[in-house]
Every structure is written in structure tokens, then in C-alpha cells.
Amino acid sequence: MRTVVVALGNFDGVHLGHQVVLRRAVEEGRRRSEPVVAATFHPHPRAVLRPGEEPPLLSTLEMRRELLLRYGADEVYVIRFDKELSQKSPEEFARDVLVGEIGAGAVVVGENFRFGHRASGNLDDLRRLMRSYGGDAIGVPLRGENGEEEINSTRIRAMISTGDVTDAGRLLGRPYAVRGRVVEGDRRGRTIGFPTANLLPDPAVVVPARGVYAGHACVGEKRYAVCTNVGVAPTFERGENRIEAYLLQFDGDLYGRTIDVSFTARIRDERRFSGVEELKAQIARDVEEARRLADDTA
Fold first, then answer.
1. 111: Cβ–Cβ under 8 A, 6 or more apart, which residues?
2. What CATH number does the domain located at 4-140 have?
3. What proportions of the chain, in percent to the nearest 5, are helix, strand and coil?
4. Is the pLDDT score of 295 beyond 80?
5. Among 190, 156, 177, 141, which Cα is nearest to 64's?
6. Are 264 and 213 in contact (CB under 8 A)?
7. Residue 26 CA to chain centroid, in angstroms?
């Protein structure tokens, strides 16, 4: 049976700290001439252990897989988290999952990684168990390349949920992005000269706070500057929170397509306007600001 180097973690968001884990795994894989497998848990453990209390996610499983491969993994292995897995002792997890299922010869984790029933296992336990199988375990601090403060998904979620997408992007190592299918909306944007794509994201992911944002939209292989409103359109008293993206210099039909919309910077809060003309004037200013910010991050 082949052995591999396993980068192990939840990896929600694949932020800069996770990328350090992946880089260390790649180094170990090269040293051993073994492939690197990124092993991620799905669904989120809290969704199984405390249903209804799980945090909103920074990435869908599909996006997480793409990011893990982008940042160095040769393969991605999804560990199905269920009640049975949650009952495994650290010894059983190492034997059955890491060595038995994945074929781990070495495991790289964040230095605060916990595993096994009631999170009873720590890095020292993982080292001891892996060495009993002739392997090894390596712990790394979840910090960016410059050794700044510890990076974790909880902090990044909080930043995004309050609209601080710039700092969130700094800790992610790239702008936060939401993937979703374009669905039919009110078609009101067309009537005022700014047709928007009404994005329906996975309900499990975190959505930025209400407001107007600059960023980019990826449609297939093409990338467009975008001005995105997250909110309830108070001028029209819609009431329902939506993500509505205006793609600059795009001409075409997006209905039914799946696109990625990133959030680079927050332009302003969402607010009510006195009427359509005031709203149109403000959107025009927002679009120009989004264009300027897009040029700065091109």
C-alpha cells in the first residue's frame, strides 16, 4: 500500500494559516517523494454534534477542494464526519482513518489540532500514534508568512459578517468570494440602467454585512470588475436580503449560470433614498468607485 503525506484539518476558507500547513506538507512530501493529500472534514463537526449551532462556512466543499489543490495538495480526501466518527478514540482515528483509509506516512496539522472522541487527542498524541505505525506527525503554527497574529476561521467569519472584507481578505490571502447560481430577481436594475445578477449562494456560507462592495466576478474563464449590493433594497421596501452584482463591461445573459463574486472592499452602507433618481446617481458613483478599486487590485 502506498503511503502519503496528509495535511489534516477542517480547512474552512483555506486561509493563510491553512496555507502554511499545506506548504509544510508539500515540503515533507518532496522530502519523502510522496504525494500530498489534503484531508478535510465534512460536514462541519458542530453540525453533527450540536445541530443548529454550526458556524456559517467560509467555503463550500467544492470551493474548498479547489483551493486545497490550488495551494499545493495533489489530492483531496473528504473525511465524512458523523456520529460514528465522533465516537472514535484518538487511537481508533489514527488507525482506521489516517493509516487505514488514507495511508498516512506523515501527518501535518496546526499545532493546536485536537482529534478523537471529545477532542481528547492533541499533537503529542498524534506524534505518538503515528510513530507507532512507523510514521510521524508535524505541527505548525497557524500564522501567515510574516508570523503575524494567529489566524483562524472564527475571526475571519466575524470580519465578513460585519463588512470588514478588506481585513478578511488579508487573512485569507485573497478576497473573500461567494459562489452562487444567478436567479431571476425583480429586474428593477434594468429599468434604471444597472442590470444586476441576483446571486443565490449556498445557505451554509457567510454573507457579508449589508452594504455596497467592490470586487470581481468570475464568469467561466473571464473576470469582470463588479459593484455588489448586499441587502434589502430599502428604497423599494423589498425586505428580503439578497446579493445583487452589477458586472462592469459585461453584456449577456447570466440566468441559470453559476458565478463567483468576490468582495475586495466595502464602499458604503446600504441606505434608503428619496427616489429613483437619487438612487441612480448614487449607484453611478458607487460603480465608479468600484471601477477605481478594481483597477487598484487588478
1. 123, 139, 140, 141, 142
2. 3.40.50.620
3. 35, 30, 35
4. no
5. 177
6. yes
7. 21
pLDDT tier for residue 236 given thresholds of 50, 70 and 90? very low
On whether the CB atoms of residues 224 and 76 are closer than 8 A, the answer is no
Task: Give pLDDT tens digits for 31-79.
Answer: 999 999 999 999 999 999 999 999 999 999 999 999 999 999 999 999 9
Tell whether domain 175-296 is in CATH 2.40.30.30: yes
Beta strands in the chain (DSSP E): 4-9, 36-42, 75-80, 104-110, 136-140, 176-183, 197-201, 211-219, 222-231, 242-247, 258-263, 265-268
Mean pLDDT (whole number) for 2-6: 94
Q: How far is CA 297 from CA 138, 173, 277, in A?
A: 36, 13, 30
This prediction has a pTM of: 0.90
Torsion of CA 58, 206, 184, 285, to 10 degrees: -100
Q: Where are the domains of the chain?
A: 4-140, 175-296
> Residue type at 113?
F
Residues 147-206 have pLDDT tens digits of 556 799 999 999 999 999 999 999 999 999 999 999 986 655 555 568 899 999 999 999
